[in-house]
Amino acid sequence: MYTQLDIESHFDGKLKIAYLNQPATMNALTKPSLAELKDFVHSCSEDPTVRCVAISGRGKAFCSGQNLDEAFTVGKEHHDHDIIRKIVVDYYNPLVMEITRCRKPVVALVNGPAVGAGAMLALISDFVLAHESSYFSQAFSNIGLIPDTAGTYFLPKLLGRQLANYLAFTGKRLPASEARSYGLVAEVFSEEEFIPKSMEVLEKLSNMPTAAIKLTKKAFAHSYDNTLKQQLELEADLQQEASETEDFLEGVNAFLQKRKPDYKGK
Q1: CA distance linking residue 11 with residue 50, whole number of Å
Q2: How far apart are CA 28 and CA 195, in angstroms?
Q3: Is 130 in contact with 179 (CB distance < 8 Å)?
């Protein structure tokens, strides 16, 4: 089904991991890989058996960003002066929307350099687990471009105006530990711990009340634009919706019976 991705399934299919599988180019993004990744996330979002989604890279890199050879070669061959805009609109923007709207938690397992659109692919995920040797770079400015893949939307909100400007203007390489101190990364693990510790987190997410996580994501997403009053009203609506799920009933019963809950994600 997928030619650009390597898909792994864990915990009886509750967890799906998509590995960008072009290590020779440090997993540079192409139109086929972007389309496949969008389809993968959409499929996981719609599949009731999937409870958690992760994205990582094969080899020594997470993702080096857009494959520039593809973009500019295609543009020259077709005399298309709008090729960059078309790639952004037709491939990057739909992927951003698919990830941010996914009904399941989406976790980036950053195993190495995450550059340009590759950095933003990680940062638009719900959270990042990073290898200690990894780094992030908003390298767009190095070739005269602006941050895309929702970079201009999320970076100021994640970092504030000063740091967002600094990183976007300079393209500075931000080591994983420094990225964590800025709140861009949830956890940084050593080489020995990266895989086992990441899998611990993913296993936990795969057994959490997925419906509540979906509603939490929805509430956080609306918080960027809502007033306090609007957000409080939304919280009330979504809390009612959460209280009507099977997982809520199971959580309450497990608490009262002093046992571990067995959530189904419904």
Answers
A1: 10
A2: 22
A3: yes
